[in-house]
Sequence to fold (393 residues):
Amino acid sequence: MEDQLVYNLFDRGVENIYPTREFLEKRMAEGKPLRLYVGYDPTGPTLHIGHGITLLKLRDFQLLGHKIIMLIGDFTAMIGDPTDKSAARTKLTKDEVLQNCKKYQEQAAAIIDFDGENPAELLYNSEWHGKMSFADVVELSSHFTVQRLMERDMFQKRLKDEKPVYLHELMYPLMQGYDCVAMDVDGEAGGNDQTFNMLAGRTLMKDLKDKEKFVVATKLLVDSTGKKMGKTEGNMIALDDSPEDMFGKVMRWSDEMIVPGFEICTRIPMDQLHEIEKKLSAGENPRDFKLRLAFEITKQFRGQDAAQKGADHFQTVIQSGDRPDEIPVLAPSAYDIVSVLKEAGFASSNSDARRAIEGGGVKVNDVKVEDISQEVQSGDVIQKGKRFFVEIQ
Fold:
């Protein structure tokens, strides 16, 4: 068990450890609990599977007796992290940020423990950033050069494309970096896209505290095109997705995502992970492994019962083509099929609804819709594709 926990911490889903793996191993060998954190800027109303990956890394440390912090970046979210952005983020108000993070602790509690003998801490970075004076910010900025801040790829691309780079975006790594100083932590974990910001914290810890902060940069979950899975790319799996949706979304992943998915989104034993990789390389059917991956991910983030519910729904509705036991009810404002598809959330526009109908993907009472002007009535069951059902009230 201990070997598995150590493997999970140092190897599982880890892209890099700063300053070195040996440094972190030496700190852990001292036998004193380390204090580390992951920061989450509440730019959306739910945590997603990308956040889940770093929460699992916090859990790895927590299981080994270390002190973990979930930091809500309620102040930095108002600035807006420019990482990987081709344009400045839309600014958020304090009220919007606080509304966004209302469910964060509840969702995170499915992964890390906020109770018990070694509870996780929940902190907000407005506690210290909100008290900083302009003189404090100027002093903080003296630890970085413009050249270093401008070397980031997205800023270079914006300059090349003659797009603006705003001063507040350059300030973001300073603000995020100061978090670790304010909390006086030993280390930080986060996705490898946050490496620049996390290393900015290393700089400040060294300069202001004369302390070496370790950084664990985790691998990102990317789709078949190499794009990060998340709300920006529109392929997000939210941690509050229904079991059916979570299971189904994983089943739509490309086969190339199976092994990385098992590695960074689950905690199945390492020998099983390696066996799956061998079997896939030997040409075994990837669908069977994807079914297990969907089950393990749904179980990891929603629990065993939810995973079984998602699997049963997938088998009944998707594989067998049967209707689900529970179908949502809609009282539409108009009864033409195009309007119904839009109001049910099955189409984003009239043209999107028409394309679905013309493509043969819409049925009323199990009969394919041929006419885009078809009317429906109370009691009709509308189906789009294999997964989406609604009953007309």
